[in-house]
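Figure S7 source data.
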Amino acid sequence: MDNKQTCDSYTAIDVKDLLEIDELQPGVVYLEEGHNGKPWLAAFLCPCGCGEACHCIIRGMVQGHTGPSWTLTNNDSGVTLFPSVHRIPERTCGAHFFLENGRIKWC
Ligand SMILES: [Zn+2]
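Tokens for the predicted zinc ion complex:
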């Protein structure tokens, strides 16, 4: 097992329940299906190689959610989250990047 490597491209897969995934794989964005069949959460290993998971709530999918959320696009060009993902420097690696068309663009 080696999830400490950096990653610059991602492919999205749909999952029913993230808890059934024992170990996130590098380069995979897991989209957990919500009650209406659309993804409500994107989870993936941080591209910096720190080995931690990033969790992004999809905008409009959680009622009453007031924290950060992202718009999700997943089409032939790849998976895109907008705006950028910025991990809290005090508590995490502090990575700041865009995921655009399946590619990581560092900020
Ligand atoms: Zn990181």
